[in-house]
Amino acid sequence: MPHVITQSCCSDGSCVYACPVNCIHPSPDEPGFATAEMLYIDPVACVDCGACVSACPVGAIAPDSKLTEQQLPFVELNAAFYPERPAGVKLPPTSKLAPVLPAPQVRRAGGDLTVAVVGSGPAGIYAADELLTQKGVRVNVFDKLPTPFGLVRAGVAPDHQHTKGVTRLFERISSHPRFTFYLNVEVGHHVHHEELLQHHHAVLYTVGAPHDRRLDIPGMELPGARTATETVAWINGHPDFAGLPVDLGHERVVVIGNGNVALDVARILTADPDELARTDISNAALSALRSSGVREVVIAARRRPVDSAFTLPELIGLTSTAEVVLDADDHALVQEDLATATDAVTAAKLEILAKLPVASDRIDRRRIRLAYRLTPHRVLGTERVDGIEFRCTGTEDPVQFEAGLLLTSIGYRGAPIAGLPFDESAAVVPNRDGRVIDPVTGTPIAGAYVAGWIKRGPTGFIGTNKSCSMQTVSNLVDDFNAGLLGDPDARPALLDKLVRSRQPDVVDARGWRAIDAAETARGDAEGRVRVKFTDVSEMVAVAAAAPEPPLARRLLAGLLR
Ligand code: NAP
């Protein structure tokens, strides 16, 4: 009864280190880790101890006897990662156990290390976790929203609640006595980089990639053309997008690009609203979906099936929950690609595509159509979007789709950070393994660090940020030990004063917990996971009304800091 890793694998590698027999790969130190679509358990070597189940922050692992019908394909998928061999024959050990990466060791005498982390998404929280493994390190985490956890709250699709389960780990990390939240505080507006440096040894930016890559074709300015990522933010109740006018009154939506974000948005737009009603989807999105006229979502890729950007676990998840179809011409492309596929993951994707029903003209129930070799050419319509014209990649023949909503899903894009250099072409902050680099001199800028998407670009999964942040933190601590970071010239308590003078509505951990409790209580009343606040002033009011902890607890917290 071996254990199996399933769709919501976040790749943070916690299971790898928990496994006593080193049967989960690729591990973070192995070459395939950075490009792997998930981690896999070797069914022959697994001793079925369940240590990985407890370690996994997103509940992605289960014994093979406890899988749901939809998870069964993952049995084969885990096994296929390892070479075929007779039952009971173990692989020659590459190493006895997965090597535990050495934790950074703060060795400099004379004063604690204090770090400002800007951005409370996965990269920021994993960085804080790594820093707080050391005695005497203090971490202040800033976020411009009153709620933490970045894309876990505002980007992960609401029907992926397992994935959102990583917040339990993040809550544990942020409860550390030397961790302080400064939420609803925008660095660059309320406080500035230089000011943070006056109060910390280092400032570590984990601000992600807040913008979208823009598609430059005529007509993109028309109402009805927007981005998939802002639509996902609307679905998730992000305050900046809560009022987005998303018109679902037309039969067809076309999504351009076929990465995992495209799959997320297509799945939600074709899902049963009654199922979504149990989740934390925003009320605005839920009511729009209840009255939606959408019958088909076309996911249009400019390249061939073999080049599909979505991952295999997400394709398995999509095809087991939604009606997914493929045109006859695209089926022919799949067959050609299957004949030349060189790696197992790509071949497995193509085999799933090959089994999809051929798209007929009649649409019996809401469906998703995957379409290939379509390069976007121009938006059709004058007052608003009526459709889109593609050119068939290769032949240049025009191909038109009628559609009332056009969503570009062609990737995220990083934004410049005030006071730091920016690489416009890669849309990242120039850095060497997390140390921010002056592009003119090629030397590190003292005290400035990056991790996550602003460091490496918008790719990977939630857990990919763990090893990314660990690398940055390791370098930051090395610099501190080497005396390269100037000591802050202000007492720590003054930071609190400064922030509150600039932003009286700062939300701390207590305030966030009050928001969290109020949202889940609203959810309980409606049989839902939570009902989110989507308005910043409402959140701030709930946070401000949070009762003060008893004096004894406050004194103890002060002592522990
Ligand atoms: P992505 O995976 O980079 O996919 C971008 C898509 O846009 C590709 O199909 C790309 O096609 C296409 N594209 C780019 N420029 C284009 C253009 N000018 N015209 C037409 N198509 C264009 O991006 P994403 O979907 O935003 O995902 C970002 C990251 O988040 C990924 O690593 C993804 O796996 C991750 N993510 C994971 C999950 C999950 O695990 N559930 C969910 C959401 C996101 P080409 O390949 O031809 O360039």
TrEMBL record:
Cofactor(s), by name: FAD
UniProt keyword terms in alphabetical order: FAD, Flavoprotein, Iron, Iron-sulfur, Metal-binding, NADP, Oxidoreductase
Domain 4Fe-4S ferredoxin-type span(s) in chain numbering: 1-29, 37-66
Pfam family membership, one: Pyr_redox_2
EC numbers: 1.18.1.2
Keyword Iron-sulfur (UniProt): yes
Gene Ontology molecular function: ferredoxin-NADP+ reductase activity; iron-sulfur cluster binding; metal ion binding
Alphabetical list of InterPro entries matching this protein: 4Fe4S_Fe-S-bd (IPR017896), 4Fe4S_Fe_S_CS (IPR017900), FAD/NAD-bd_sf (IPR036188), FAD/NAD-binding_dom (IPR023753), Ferredox_Rdtase (IPR055275)
Enzyme kind, highest EC tier: oxidoreductase
Catalytic activity of the protein: 2 reduced [2Fe-2S]-[ferredoxin] + NADP(+) + H(+) = 2 oxidized [2Fe-2S]-[ferredoxin] + NADPH
Name this protein carries in UniProt: ferredoxin--NADP(+) reductase
